[in-house]
Amino acid sequence: MTALLELRDLHAGYGQTRVLHGIDLTVDAGGVTALLGANGAGKTTTLRAVCGMVRTTGEVTLAGERIDNRATEDIARRGVAHVPDGRGTFMELTVEENFKLGAYVRKDREVTSDFEQMFGYFPRLRQRWKQQAGTLSGGEQQMLAIARALLLRPRLLLLDEPSFGLAPLIVQDIFGILRQVREAQGVGILIVEQNANLALDFADRAYLLETGRIVVSGPAQEIREDEQIRRSYLGY
Ligand SMILES: Nc1ncnc2c1ncn2[C@@H]1O[C@H](COP(=O)(O)OP(=O)(O)OP(=O)(O)O)[C@@H](O)[C@H]1O
Q: What is the pTM of this model?
């Protein structure tokens, strides 16, 4: 399979604080890669590094093209959509306005049919169309954030803890939809999750990050079935 995203010897940090110390990671085209690790390991920073929100050294390659240290907007135009932790929706705007912002970089006329496609995935968003995003439930906000990212028609979707703070049934719903999206749109996904079980179930490939370094990597299924890895790193 061709690599969609490749990180090679990636270093990143904030000012004097170095957070990532040489990460190698791959997302296959149409594949799902999970990035796991304890609080503060550098998972969010890795996603930020991919979409140009922190300064990096090393290589970030999207479908064979270097994107490291480009502007965030330029990276978005090349097909990278980011659903940050805290959802990244515009809380004071309505669902409709958030949808329109999601599609803002698109110049084609198919946006309206993509709105319909999003309603197919997330019927509740149609019912909440004129509602302010800040007044939606946590699950609806996560759905809106994912829909908004998908309206970019990304090649790569970066998801930062999509299950955070949500009830188990909603989480199941959202992951069910992510599976459909992956099949229907062939989008590659890099997902950060505290819920290792959930992420390993969803992903084909996984990496375990510890204080800015990858300590375990491999097929998600193998990691899920490895009792020693589970006990040492995942705490279950
Ligand atoms: N804007 C920032 N300025 C300075 N340090 C930061 C900033 N953001 C994160 N850090 C530091 O970088 C380190 C890694 O943080 P990061 O958010 O990437 O970890 P994480 O693995 O995503 O953790 P969590 O699961 O808690 O979100 C932490 O020590 C954190 O304090």
A: 0.94
